Amino acid sequence: MLDIKEVQLLLNPEQTKQKIRRMAFQIFEANFKEKKLVIAGINGQGYHLAEAIVNDLKEISDKEIFLAKIILDKQAESQPEIQIECEIDTFKKKTVILVDDVLNTGRTLAYTFRPFMSIPLKRLQVAVLVDRDYLNFPVRADYVGYNLATTLNDHVKVILDNKKEYGVYLY
């Protein structure tokens, strides 16, 4: 539940679902020749976004789609350990799309690249629902649902695991 006084709804449930579906189509089109794709969501709302993208991809494509979960502490200053809930062989010689809800400074996604650097991937791409363009790390998203220019004091909250509050909020 959002218990913040001044909350602005940026994307309602229908708009959010449309953005996610468009992202799925973009992923499908950019990877048309691939027979298999791995969608790896970062724990929390990033993983819920990955699940939604996988569901849409399965509706529009006959590709073999794998879903993986990446576990890390988004609040930690450094990431000593990043866990992947999927067999490493699942990723080998495949296109992997890392998924997170919001791209703010790029720190979380930059840390997430580390475990994939020792796996022989075909390609590594990034998908985010909201891109805020405040990058401190050299990370860019290949697939973006919504670009948003905000102040540094603004916060963006994506909620994909609660039907009553499903959407994107600014506070």
TrEMBL record:
Q: Tell me the classification of the organism that encodes this protein.
A: Bacteria, Pseudomonadati, Bacteroidota, Cytophagia, Cytophagales
Identify the keywords attached in UniProt to this record, alphabetized: Glycosyltransferase, Transferase
What Pfam families does the entry give? Pribosyltran (PF00156)
Segments passing through the bilayer: none
By its UniProt entry, which InterPro entries does this protein fall under? Answer: PRTase-like, PRTase_dom, PyrR_bifunctional
GO MF annotation: an example: glycosyltransferase activity
Q: Where is the Phosphoribosyltransferase domain?
A: 13-146
Instruction: Indicate whether Disulfide bond appears among the record's keywords.
Output: no
Task: Please name the SUPFAM superfamilies in this protein's record.
Answer: PRTase-like
Name of the protein described by the UniProt record: Phosphoribosyltransferase
